[in-house]
Amino acid sequence: SPRVLSGIQPTAGSFHLGNYLGAVRQWVALQETHDAFYMLADLHAITVMQDPAELRANTRLATAQLLAAGLDPERCTLFIQSHVPEHAQLAWVMNCLTGFGEASRMTQFKDKSARQGADRASVGLFTYPVLQVADILLYQAHEVPVGEDQRQHIELTRDLADRFNGRFGPTFTVPKPYILKETAKIYDLQDPTIKMSKSASTPKGLINLLDDPKVTAKKVKSAVTDTDTVIRYDVENKPGVSNLLTVHSTLTGAGIAELEERYAGKGYGALKTDLAEIMVEFATPFRERTQQYLDDPETLDSILAKGAEKARAVAAETLALAYDRVGFLPAK
Ligand code: TYM
């Protein structure tokens, strides 16, 4: 079956609603139909300063959340990036194929380095997308399930795969982004023109899945909409309402048209009250399951150990091929 690979940075503590609806939810679905590899991107995490104890705790917490969300280690390979040294090794080769200007044009780098200042931004942050390229190509992934904000990194992956294959002969599968239109970008509840994110959202605009459900309900109920009263999906003119409809529709399976009909003549309050309840119903068992996994570190470790072993088997084979293609003399 076709292969997918994706990753998430294990640094944020709680996943937010954008991570879940934009990516993790698709990962859960794709493990049924694809040979799926999912990764805690701890190498990416240290491109900005991390406290070591916090990084360790957050990596466990992120693993527990992925399992709580429905990843099944019998159906997918779940592993930690730093457990597979081939990521850093292939990244070096890919760095040598990437233009300096090409890397400079990556928008996430430009945003993050602008926020930090040129002298504080690390070279690791600069070369972050190239490490992501290596992540994907090592597994010969056909598709990469992510949110819209990762599209440019997948484009770079395609370019570098083509470049390598052109220069050294067919080696890497050229992957496609797997981005669902409806959930490609989940918006901030207070400013529905920006994406929900740990760094840009205010606390009220950001739904953390592990928040106290009461807090979550409150945030949904105070979401910014517009001065109109009609519940209609219209991203241009009604971004706030459209975002709420998207979240409702994805969590309940109800179609957008069906929801527009259901809420016809009712105010925004009705939609928000229902959605608050839906969110609480989703988040409560999610929190409980996450805690259960955290309480059982031995199971967690053994899942990650098996995952690393499976991942390394694939990654080592691809790296050996790539090393051979570039002309490295094999160690005898
Ligand atoms: P990260 O950790 O920032 O985010 C994890 C996933 O969540 C998606 N996402 C969103 N989707 C919709 N709406 C939002 N508001 C929203 N916010 C976040 C992201 O698009 C992402 O899919 N560089 C990656 C991690 C990574 C990776 C990889 C991904 C490392 N190696 C290889 C794919 C393949 C990142 O920082 O994601």
TrEMBL record:
InterPro entries: aa-tRNA-synth_I_CS, aa-tRNA-synth_Ic, Rossmann-like_a/b/a_fold, Trp-tRNA-ligase, Trp-tRNA-ligase_bac-type, Trp-tRNA_synthetase. Its EC number is 6.1.1.2. One of its GO terms (molecular function) is tryptophan-tRNA ligase activity. It comes from the Bacteria. It catalyses: tRNA(Trp) + L-tryptophan + ATP = L-tryptophyl-tRNA(Trp) + AMP + diphosphate + H(+). Transmembrane segments: none annotated. Keywords: Aminoacyl-tRNA synthetase, ATP-binding, Cytoplasm, Ligase, Nucleotide-binding, Protein biosynthesis. It is found in: Cytoplasm. L-tryptophan binds at residue 135. Homodimer. This is Tryptophan--tRNA ligase. It comes from Streptomyces incanus.
